[in-house]
C-alpha cells in the first residue's frame, strides 16, 4: 500500500528506439514530503499545531530525524510543528507496547545517555520526551532535559507510586497516554495512575478518548480526579483515515480492523487511528463535561503542558491567530492557521455573516 511504505507513483517518459513511451516507476517520498502531508492532512480535523511523535528507534535514525522534526511555523498549507515528541527508547522493557523491544534502553549515564542517543541537534528540536522514571539514570535524565526546557512525560513504565513521585520531583510534568503501557491501578500501589490522587502539583495526563485505549468509565474517573490536567492526544499512526488493512509503524507491521490498530499476530495496541475532533466529541460524551472543558482539553491544556499558553490554546490578546470553527455537534467547519483559512468544509461559509 502506498500509504503503508511511504511510496508514491509518478509518470516518467523514456526514449525507446526513438519513441517516447510512458514508464511507471515507484518513488519513495522523502521525510519532508511525508511530514508536509501529515501537517496538511490533519487540518481537516481541527489541528493547527502538533508534536510529531517518534517511537523507539536506533541511534542512526535519531541522527537523521534532527532536521526533519525541527520546529516550523504553520500557514494556510499546513499546521505548526511545535517540536518532536520522542517516545523512547528510555522506556520499560516490560511495557514497551508496539515499540521494538530490542532497541529499548536505560539512560544509565543520566543526561549523558540522552545526548549520546539523540544528539544535541535533535534535542534542540524536541518539545517532549517520554521516559520511564524507574529506570537507572532516569532521574538525572529528567533533570537534564527539564533544565533545557524539554518537557518530560512519564510513560511506558512499571513505576510504583514512590518512583512516579520521584519523577515529578525531578521535573516531569505529564503522564503519557494514561492507563496504557503502565501498571494497572491497584489500591495498595496505584503506580503512575496514582499521581492523579496527589493533593497538590498533580501532573497533566494524556488520554486517548477513542473508546478503545481506555473505557469511558476510566476516562470519566481520570477527569473527575483532575479535570484541569486532561490533555487529549490521538496517538494516531500514519494509517489514520485509510481504512482496514496492513500498515507499518516504523518497522513494526500493524493491522487495522474495525478501528483498532494492533501489532500483527498479537492483541497489542499499536497507536490509534483516531482523529482529534472525534476525541473531543468522545471526551465530552464519556465524561459529561461541558463543551468548554472538552475543547480546553484539546487546546489550552496542551499549550499549558508545553509552556506555550501565552501563544497557543486560547483566543486571548497576543495569541497566534489559530482558530477552529465548529458546528453544534463539535464537527470541524473550518480551520484557520496564522490568520489564514487552511481548510474549509464548504466555501459558502465564507459568505456567512458571523456574530460575536
Q: Concise description?
A:
By secondary structure, the chain is of the alpha/beta class.
Description:
The chain is an alpha/beta fold and 356 residues long. 26% of the residues lie in helices and 22% in strands. Strands 4-6-7-8-9-10-11 form a seven-stranded parallel beta sheet. Strands 12-13-14 form a three-stranded antiparallel beta sheet. α4 packs across α6 and α8 crosses α9. The protein is globular and about 60 Å long. The termini are far apart.
Whole-Å distance between the termini? 46 Å
- Helical run tally: 11
Structural class: alpha/beta
Outline: globular
- Share of helix among residues? 25-40%
- Our estimate of the beta-strand percent is 15-25%
How many β-strand runs?
17
Mean pLDDT: 88
SSE topology string: HEEHEEHEEHHEHEHEEHEEEEHHHEEE
Tell me the radius of gyration. Answer: 21 Å
Largest sheet data = 7 strands, parallel
Oligomer: single chain
Spatially, the strands of the biggest sheet line up as 4-6-7-8-9-10-11
Task: Indicate the topology.
Layout: H1 2-5, E1 7-16, E2 19-28, H2 31-41, E3 49-50, E4 53-55, H3 59-68, E5 80-81, E6 84-87, H4 111-118, H5 120-124, E7 126-131, H6 138-147, E8 151-154, H7 161-169, E9 174-175, E10 204-207, H8 216-225, E11 230-232, E12 245-249, E13 252-257, E14 260-263, H9 276-287, H10 291-296, H11 300-305, E15 323-326, E16 332-337, E17 340-344
Parallel strand pairs: 3-5, 4-6, 6-7, 7-8, 8-9, 9-10, 10-11
Antiparallel strand pairs: 1-2, 12-13, 13-14, 15-16, 16-17
Helix pairs in contact: 4-6, 8-9
Keywords:
356 residues, 3-stranded antiparallel beta sheet, alpha/beta, globular, 17 strands
